[in-house]
Amino acid sequence: MKDTLSVAGWCVNPDGTAKATVYVSTLTGLITQVGDYTSHADIIARDLICPGAIDAHVHCREDESGLEMYKEDFKTGGEAAVNGGVTHMGEMGNNPV
Question: Between residues 95 and 12, which one has the greater pLDDT?
Fold first, then answer.
């Protein structure tokens, strides 16, 4: 197995969107490099290549009442987000009072 996978396509970054090749470690799943576009990449993406996703609607709880401790809190929600490639979460407050 190769240590690095190359994916070419439209890459979204803080400066905008441009054609680029993204190199991803097959060992860690992390982006190791972003370079010039090449048509000789391992994968030619038809969708946008994003370095991280935004989940704009999450419900994490800090249940002071102790009645709903079985529901997801910020620790477990954050861990799940990081492991799923989510870099930003937008909390929709609905904690019990």
Answer: 12
End-to-end CA distance of the chain: 52
Q: What is the spatial distance between Cα 23 and Cα 70, in angstroms, rounded to a whole number?
A: 39
For strand 4-13 and strand 43-44, is the pairing parallel, antiparallel, or unpaired?
parallel
Residue 90, both tokens? 């937008």
Residue 65 has pLDDT above 70, yes or no: yes
Helix (H) or strand (E) holding 10: strand 4-13
CB 89 within 8 A of CB 78: yes
Q: Whole-model pTM?
A: 0.61
DSSP SS3 for 91: strand
SS3 for 26-89 is CCCCCEEEEECCCCCCCEECCCCECCCEEEEEECCCCCCCCCCCCCCCHHHHHHHHHHCCEEEE
